[in-house]
Amino acid sequence: MVLSSLPGAKALLLGSLWAFCVLPGLGSDARRMRFTRRGGDLSGGIDAVVQKVRESILPELYTAPKEFNSKKRFIIVGDIHGAAKEFDDILKQVNFSAENGDQVILAGDMTVKGPDSNEVLKKAMEIKAACVRGNQDHRVVAAQYMLDNPDILQEFDLLSVGAKLPDGLQVKAKQLEVAQNMPAEDMAYLKACPAMVQLPAKYRMAVMHAGVEPSKPLSKQDPEWVMNIRNVLDNGEPSSEKDDGVGWFTLYNELKAGKGGNKGDSTEKTCGKPGGKPSGSLDQVVDHIVYGHDAGRGLNQLEFTHGLDSGCVYGRQLSALIMPGFELVQVPCKMYEEKVE
Ligand SMILES: *[C@@H]1O[C@H](CO)[C@@H](O)[C@H](O)[C@H]1NC(C)=O
């Protein structure tokens, strides 16, 4: 799978998020094309539609919810994929209690593959769980967009050319089915999940589905890669495959360790003026990244990165990380799908 991105979407996103702060190098970065597709060429008509769809469905890059400041415990849960029973099991296992100040954060891919995406989202809303959007969730949102815009579905027949479209728009029957059967309030919850969510500053931690491009500060990440990255290639480009290059987390940990870890990300020295990074910005306060997405590598706990996709939907475990304390809790899962994608 090759993920691609359009400069327009990136410029739009950065422009809206960091309007108060001129980011050096934005121009050249935004112009850098990384648009590759599987399959043959599509017409210019499809290109324009693809760009429109991508821009329309992008999640917010990050949020740092104010209500987090009053929470006592954060319970970060890996990829659930519709395994509603196991989601219940793990909430019991960690003694979840909203009254006692527990906050659940879902690390993405709450939907698709397993038996009951709607039930998982209902439970998530009931317990006021925070969430980030995963690559499968993103395809469900894309499917919903296409269902809402039948002209796009019909005129360009996006579904039938799915294999030629960039990831996120490669909507297949299973995501379409999930979208078609999803109540509007569940879909609204899913759509509102940002690409990253930040814990209160003292935890120095953010949750996202797949990871980051280690060479870029968090505020300059591309939300599509945040939902899809696994590796960094020799040429420095991100990849959603894990066969070539090196795991993003390996480079990230090297970078953090080399820089003294808790000093934060200093890959970007200035923000418009000397020493001018906004105080308390995501770049400054995050060291630890908690993520899912990589069931192939499974549980992956390193110093600064905490990979929680232990393959629940494939009959392995559902994992949760509890903060403060970095305690790991797991529950066994039924096998709902045989093949790790
Ligand atoms: C949940 O509560 C039980 C019983 O009080 C306790 O043994 C267990 O350690 C608790 N689990 C967590 C993750 O705090």
Name the descriptors.
14 strands; alpha/beta; globular; binds 2-acetamido-2-deoxy-beta-D-glucopyranose; single chain; 341 residues; 14% strand; Purple Acid Phosphatase, chain A, domain 2; Metallo-depent_PP-like
What's the quick description here?
The chain has helices spanning 7-17, 26-31, 44-57, 84-93, 117-126, 135-148, 150-156, 173-180, 184-192, 223-226, 248-258, 282-285; strands spanning 62-63, 73-77, 102-106, 130-131, 196-198, 205-208, 231-232, 238-239, 246-247, 288-291, 300-301, 305-307, 317-323, 327-332.
General description of the model:
The protein is α/β, with parallel strands linked by helices. The chain has one domain: Purple Acid Phosphatase, chain A, domain 2. Helix content is 32%, strand content 14%. The protein contains twelve helices and 14 strands. The protein has helices at residues 7-17, 26-31, 44-57, 84-93, 117-126, 135-148, 150-156, 173-180, 184-192, 223-226, 248-258, 282-285, and strands spanning 62-63, 73-77, 102-106, 130-131, 196-198, 205-208, 231-232, 238-239, 246-247, 288-291, 300-301, 305-307, 317-323, 327-332. The protein has a six-stranded mixed β-sheet with strand order 1-5-6-10-12-11, with helices on one face. Strands 4-3-2-13-14 form a five-stranded mixed β-sheet, covered by helices on one side. It has a three-stranded antiparallel β-sheet with strand order 8-7-9. Helix 3 (44-57) crosses helix 6 and helix 6 (135-148) crosses helix 8 (173-180). The radius of gyration is 19 Å and the shape is globular. The chain starts with 6 loop residues before the first helix and ends in a 9-residue tail after the last strand. Mean pLDDT is 82; it is low at 1-42 and 260-279. 2-acetamido-2-deoxy-beta-D-glucopyranose (NAG) binds at residues 94-95, 329.
